[in-house]
Amino acid sequence: MRGIGPVVASEQQATQQLSTLRRFLQYLRPYRKEIPIALTLVMIGASTQAIGPFLIGWSIDNLIARGNLRGLLLILGLLGLIYGLGVWAIRGQIIRVGWIMQRLLAQLRQDIFTKIQSLPLSFFDRSEAGDLMSRLLNDVNTVNQAFGQTIAQMLGNIFSLVGIVIAMFAINLRLGLLSNLVVPAMILTTSFFARWARAKFRVTRQTIGELSAKLEEDIGSVREAQAFNRVPINIEEFNILNAANRDANVQAVAITAAFLPSIDFLNTLATAGVLAYGGYLAVTGAATVGVVTSFLLYVQQFFRPIQILSQFYTQAQSAFAGLERIFLLLDEPSQLQDAPDAIEMPPIQGEVKFENVMFGYNPNQLVLKGVNLHAHAGQMVALVGPTGSGKSTIINLILRFYDVSGGAVKIDNIDVRSVTQASLRRQIGIVLQDNILFSGTVAENIAFGLPHATQADIEAAAQMANVHEFITSLPQGYTTQLGERGAPLSQGQRQLISIARAVLINPRILILDEATSSIDTRTEAMVQEAIARLLKGRTSFVIAHRLSTVTQADRVLVIQQGQIVEQGTHAELIAQQGVYANLYALQLGTTPTMEAH
């Protein structure tokens, strides 16, 4: 009974691998016309390899033994033509197959990137950016190394092997049988090492993903690491992951190092057998010297494809491990797909309703618990409350980054789940506390949400955001190149460009997440002025940590533990002497009117 578990596991692995290969081969469908051409070239190349030893053996018996120099010269010329044709065919097959494989792998990368871009935010809540980058780069590169660079050679060797086996049995049945006696041993050896290698290569793919995630995280937070004297700890943690990846690769290499000598030993054993038995047949007159010579050449050719195929099979385990990770990502459900009957969102007027909304990032833990709110078109609604109370979640649901667990979010009385996400988000602008700029020109960053905007529109948006004068003072103005995350601009300058980006799309609903935090007083005044212009005539939701910034809001919603506990204008909430009044007094440094609850 002990052996049943490993057998079942092996069968499951084989089934999974076959399924992975079948899915990978589906990427060949667009190249139906090119594949027959490549296969024809492969067959021509393989045929030339199989003909050569036969002609050499025949020449020894029928030309060299009889002193026919003229006939020998003709055969040498024929061999030159045959091998020349083989070189042309092999070169053609490598180019053709390489052309197909590189396009296939480019499509695979495109599919991965498209999938990553379309996945819901809930997926990224539990995934690391570095690991996703590893799947797109490292795993695809592993597939490229295993298939893209050797697939043409592998196909050629398969056809060569078939041709050689046919020729061997046709020339001498007994020597053919002897030569193939080691094939079962070779198959068992390959199977053993491949099973062993598969597990090790899975570990290498996993550890390189973890290492990439750690690298991406630590590079992005190097400033914080230095500020908090975290550098030695980060180095030690990286060393641990790096060592794990090193050990996994060393173990995988050790398998290959043991596998290739085993195949070489079987090759030598078969050659010795053919030489001994073939020599006996030649001495006794049962076979000619030319036949034995042909067989020795065939045995060398016979085991070369098997060696290459066996080595490829072992290397392919790493590729299969990478493909499994890739297909797991591609199979990740896109939870926020447009409904089959989704419509385009009509021009938004700006009315927003939450009707008994329930939501949790974890199904077993609700963040919002029966939230009801009604924002009229053109109103400024401020969301205040402690960290983790649900303010950002309300914003995420308006943008439909997540779907509600219960209830409904409606804009102009239209459930956001009934419209296409693109048409919804096209009419909503957002300015975050941690604004993100991208490598590219200043103009490209402003036009991020409207890539085909004219230069005049971009400059008009910048003027409205109070950043035009600053941009024109840059060395190349609007064509000035920015680095990663907007370097070398200051926080305030990046914030003003983010506001210009929101201005450009002319949103009907605007979301601001503490857009004036972490900037100096002078820049804050410019940001506040730009925001005031942006808010006019638009429905806006403002997440505020500094309550002094929301005194002019039409409605203030106080959020605690996923519920709206108070709502009203600033003056009304102060008069209530409740939670909001207490928070406001604490921020102003005065005596609280009551205990927070």
Automatic annotation (TrEMBL):
<dbReference type="InterPro" id="IPR003593">
    <property type="entry name" value="AAA+_ATPase"/>
</dbReference>
<feature type="transmembrane region" description="Helical">
    <location>
        <begin position="177"/>
        <end position="197"/>
    </location>
</feature>
<dbReference type="GO" id="GO:0005524">
    <property type="term" value="F:ATP binding"/>
</dbReference>
<keyword id="KW-0472">Membrane</keyword>
<dbReference type="Pfam" id="PF00005">
    <property type="entry name" value="ABC_tran"/>
</dbReference>
<feature type="transmembrane region" description="Helical">
    <location>
        <begin position="154"/>
        <end position="171"/>
    </location>
</feature>
<dbReference type="GO" id="GO:0016887">
    <property type="term" value="F:ATP hydrolysis activity"/>
</dbReference>
<feature type="domain" description="ABC transporter">
    <location>
        <begin position="352"/>
        <end position="586"/>
    </location>
</feature>
<feature type="transmembrane region" description="Helical">
    <location>
        <begin position="37"/>
        <end position="60"/>
    </location>
</feature>
<dbReference type="GO" id="GO:0015421">
    <property type="term" value="F:ABC-type oligopeptide transporter activity"/>
</dbReference>
<feature type="transmembrane region" description="Helical">
    <location>
        <begin position="274"/>
        <end position="299"/>
    </location>
</feature>
<keyword id="KW-0067">ATP-binding</keyword>
<dbReference type="InterPro" id="IPR003439">
    <property type="entry name" value="ABC_transporter-like_ATP-bd"/>
</dbReference>
<keyword id="KW-0547">Nucleotide-binding</keyword>
<keyword id="KW-1133">Transmembrane helix</keyword>
<feature type="domain" description="ABC transmembrane type-1">
    <location>
        <begin position="37"/>
        <end position="318"/>
    </location>
</feature>
<dbReference type="InterPro" id="IPR036640">
    <property type="entry name" value="ABC1_TM_sf"/>
</dbReference>
<dbReference type="InterPro" id="IPR039421">
    <property type="entry name" value="Type_1_exporter"/>
</dbReference>
<keyword id="KW-0812">Transmembrane</keyword>
<dbReference type="Pfam" id="PF00664">
    <property type="entry name" value="ABC_membrane"/>
</dbReference>
<protein>
    <submittedName>
        <fullName>ABC transporter</fullName>
    </submittedName>
</protein>
<dbReference type="GO" id="GO:0005886">
    <property type="term" value="C:plasma membrane"/>
</dbReference>
<dbReference type="InterPro" id="IPR017871">
    <property type="entry name" value="ABC_transporter-like_CS"/>
</dbReference>
<dbReference type="InterPro" id="IPR011527">
    <property type="entry name" value="ABC1_TM_dom"/>
</dbReference>
<dbReference type="InterPro" id="IPR027417">
    <property type="entry name" value="P-loop_NTPase"/>
</dbReference>
<feature type="transmembrane region" description="Helical">
    <location>
        <begin position="72"/>
        <end position="90"/>
    </location>
</feature>
<keyword id="KW-0813">Transport</keyword>
